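[09:14] KT: can someone run the structure on this one? pasting the chain below
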Amino acid sequence: MTLALSDWEEFYRDGKSFHKRTRMSINQSQIFTPTLIQNLAAMSIEKYFMAIFMSRGFLPRNHTMFDLVEEIKQIVPISPTLEETLLYMDSLQQICSIDNIKITLPKKEDVPQFLAAVDQVEFLADTLCKSS
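[09:31] RB: done, structure tokens below
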């Protein structure tokens, strides 16, 4: 049996907090642009994934959506739609290399799929964190 890493619950709570803010942001479109909503959704997703990994006793090798998707697929299959959305989110902000930064602004039409992705990752965290 693998021992959970300390503080995984804090990442889970942070995921819930960012998730709540993401949901609330869609009703305040004069303040929250699709880019801000995408970033809130990404923070929530990253926190949920970290809670999952840490509750299972390990840390992911990286924090890009691509890497998080590859890591979670080692634990549980995810829907092709969720994978596609997470990889799309990853493609919008390629900021790891300071020599080759690429940022593409998300469209308003992208927001529902960002919210759906957060909901799906929350479900994974709710299920996987409680079973570890």
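[09:33] KT: thanks! The chain is about 60% helix and 5% strand.
[09:34] RB: yep, looked fine to me
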